[in-house]
Each structure stands twice: as C-alpha cells, then as structure tokens.
TrEMBL record:
Pfam family, one: Cupin_2
SUPFAM superfamilies reported for this sequence: lambda repressor-like DNA-binding domains (SSF47413), RmlC-like cupins (SSF51182)
Protein's name in the database: Cupin domain-containing protein
Residue stretches making up the HTH cro/C1-type domain: 10-64
Length: 193
C-alpha cells in the first residue's frame, strides 16, 4: 500500500467522471482547496475525509483502492462476465435470517459513468433499516416478483413490469417482502458501488 498514490488515483477518477475540483468539493461538502491538496499529495486525508470526498463521486473505499481490473470492454457480456458487487454493500447487518441479495454489474461502470445492475432479492432480502443515500440518479425495472421500495417517506410495492426512477440523494431502501424471488435490472449514474 506504500506505493499507492492517493492523489493521482483521485484525480484520475474525478476527471473520468467529468468533474472539476470545485464540482467535486461541492458534491462532497468539503473545501475546494482540500481536493487540490489531496490530488497534489500535499496532505494525506483522514479516512473519514476520504470517504466523504469519494461519496461526492459515488465511489466506495473498496473501489478506490481496488487495483484496475481487466474487464471485458464490451460491448457484449456473457453471464459469467458480470462483476459481483454484493460484498460492497452492507446488507442485512444483524439480520442473518434475512434473505440473500445478489448484485452483479455489467461491464466497467466508471468507464461509461453508468452502473447497470442485475439484482436478485430472495424472500426476506433487505438493504437494511439504515436507508441508502448517495449522489446519483437511479432507476430500475422489476422483471420478476415484487419489490418493496421506500423513497423518502413513500413506500410502494412494485410488481413485475413496473419501474422506478428517483434522485438517490433521497434516503431509500429495497426489500423483498414476498415469499418468492424478485429480479430487478437497474441503472445508476454516476456509479455508486
């Protein structure tokens, strides 16, 4: 980890997302100078500061420190070429009896600034009582089953053939309250996971 250049990595991810330093600072809620100083390696950010800055781009700590993958550049992807992101979300914390949730990504989300997911919610699957919230927009289509979606103070059970689209800065939660599997195809930009 000694050879990891935080400043260069942050600059590369910021420019790939077509963000200026000022735009990232605004989205992350940090001073503009802080972004500049991190990118020039003048300061070494605390973990909480780095998490805040990465949150402004919708990038997780794991994704930031993960070495570059040699993913299939597309345009076509086989079933076995989807990237499993399940471990990147703290799901069902403290609820081992809850159903399994599997998230698989199509291709390199950062390259296209678009994250497309194939999501499988087994009965009881739940993203958790702590609502998700990130600087993105997201939408999805329920392919099979039923998905209980809470956005802000509203909750609705979406059935196969129904869809959603909202500003991800609003607190939200996904659940499968039924006794059958639910399958969703969703998209998020900029990428969150």
């Amino acid at each position: 980890m000694d050879d990891f250049d935080i400043g260069s990595r942050l600059r590369a991810m910021r420019t790939a997302g077509n963000l200026s330093q000022r735009q990232l600072a605004e989205q992350a809620g940090v001073p503009h100078a802080q972004i500049s100083n991190i990118e020039k390696n003048k300061i070494s950010p605390s973990i909480s500061t780095l998490r805040k800055v990465l949150g402004g781009m919708g990038v997780s700590m794991a994704d930031f420190f993960e070495p570059e993958r040699e993913d299939n550049p597309g345009p076509f992807f086989g079933r076995d070429e989807l990237i499993d992101l399940t471990s990147r979300v703290a799901i069902n914390a403290g609820a081992p009896e809850s159903g399994l949730l599997v998230l698989r990504q199509i291709g390199d989300a950062r390259l296209h600034n678009l994250q497309i997911l194939h999501e499988v919610y087994e009965p009881g699957a739940d993203t958790g009582e702590t609502m998700l919230q990130h600087a993105s927009s997201e939408g999805g289509y329920v392919v099979e089953g039923e998905l209980a979606l809470t956005v802000g103070d509203e909750m609705r059970i979406l059935k196969a053939g129904e869809a959603y689209l909202f500003d991800s800065r609003q607190p939200h939660r996904f659940q499968n309250l039924s006794d059958t599997r639910t399958i969703v195809v969703s998209a998020c930009t900029p990428p969150y996971l």
